[in-house]
Design goal:
This protein has 145 residues and is mainly α. The chain has a domain at 2-67 and 98-131. The protein has seven helices and two strands. The protein has helices at 5-14, 30-42, 52-67, 70-76, 86-96, 101-113, 122-142, and strands at 2-3, 118-119. A two-stranded antiparallel sheet has the order 1-2. Helix 2 (30-42) packs across helix 6 (101-113) and helix 3 (52-67) packs across helix 6 (101-113). The longest helix is centred in the last third of the chain and has 21 residues, at 122-142. The radius of gyration is 18 Å and the shape is globular. The mean pLDDT is 87.
Length: 145
């Protein structure tokens, strides 16, 4: 996944404060989408992935590390807590601090399809379209709802 650096530069130049503002993005995930663009503008996404689901998982983990304090909560506190329970700590952190993975995925989908700020490699996009068509055929064939 690549960030369209030229479009990001234009967005920064168009804003009065030099920050990323996605005014056309739905408000329920606008801040998350803006943070994803800032995060990828600072450091590109070099992870490899085969499916969009895998991309969403890797992007979610990176987002949690960057913005939601996952590393601090899960690893740094371990050394100061004798009764460290990693599953319990993760559950507590996830329920109280973590951005919902669905929100991150929706923001990513917006950045790819509507804003066209994220570029998905052609082979991954082709695979995603095939999976989408297969799912649509299945829903049509067996009823969806």
């Amino acid at each position: 996944m690549e960030l369209d650096v030229l479009k990001v530069k234009v967005l920064k130049m168009e804003s009065l404060d030099g920050e990323i503002h996605l005014q056309q993005c739905p408000p329920e995930f606008r801040k998350v989408a803006e943070k994803i663009v800032v995060m990828l503008d600072k450091q590109s996404f070099k992870d490899t992935y085969v499916t969009m689901t895998e991309l969403d998982k890797k992007l979610t983990l990176r987002y949690w590390k960057e913005y939601d304090g996952l590393i601090h909560e899960m690893f740094l506190k371990r050394y100061f807590d004798e009764d460290f329970d990693p599953v319990g700590k993760f559950e507590q952190w996830f329920l109280s601090q973590a951005t919902n993975p669905d929100t991150i995925s929706r923001a990513r989908r917006y950045l790819v399809s509507d804003a066209r700020l994220l570029i998905i490699p052609k082979n991954i996009a082709k695979h995603a379209k095939q999976a989408e068509n297969k799912w649509a055929k299945h829903v049509y064939q067996f009823g969806g709802g």
